[in-house]
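Researcher: Here's a chain I'd like modeled. Treat it as a single chain, no partners, no ligands.
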Amino acid sequence: MGSGVNRRGSASRTARDTWTEATSLGAPSPSPLLSPAERRQRNREEVRQAILAAARDVMREQGVAALSLREVARRVQMQAPSLYAYFPSKMALYDALFLVAVRLRAEYRDRDDVGREGFWDRLEGRFESYFRFAQENPELYQLAYERPVPGFTPSAESLEEAFRAPAGLEQMLDDAVAAGEVMLDMPVAQARDLLIGMIHGLTAHHMANEPELSIGSGRFGSQIPAAVALFRTKWDLSGASRGSIDASVPEEGGERSTATRKKKNRP
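Model: Modeled as a single isolated chain. Structure tokens:
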């Protein structure tokens, strides 16, 4: 079988190395004091994480919709039918990857929140953390926040966890209204959806046109401060930002890659 997963379903060195790299996906840390049943469960989770990591590599290299169970099995050195002991179908594997994406996105958001104070600073962090998540994990971003796979619908359990993010943003708006930081002229849920649309819209355009450029540069990547200022001009009770939207972004979005200059951006 080589150095992937052995015939008894245990992860060998290569698969365990892949699992180690994927520990951010939530796999448990090894423990030297395990019962036989616990050891079998740990080995199973190691193999599962190796499969998820290999699937992410395939999607990143070949496209999200091009995920092949045969190719995933080859990379973890298993027979393709053996994958069904861990994921009963390709859609089940997609669903597990969708949940990985949702949880990883939440990690990016929570890390970016550290040290930020006030609604407007945290809102800018929502833009930046979403951009960063998309750039560093394009295959998960596409799976969870675009619709690249015909026929794939996340499970009810995965969707329930995914819906916590909009609920959290709505709570952030509610708290800002209660604290007097924000005055809305529309229902909170509508304001939430406007923010989600702007955050995702700028990110999607950036990823479609200039994904190699860092946050703060490019036609769309440079628009985060202006987008936050636009909302602040409308909703900030203090009026501190009224008339302060920075229109100094150079024509065509400032710094752009040579490749992008040579082609027309997508709409």
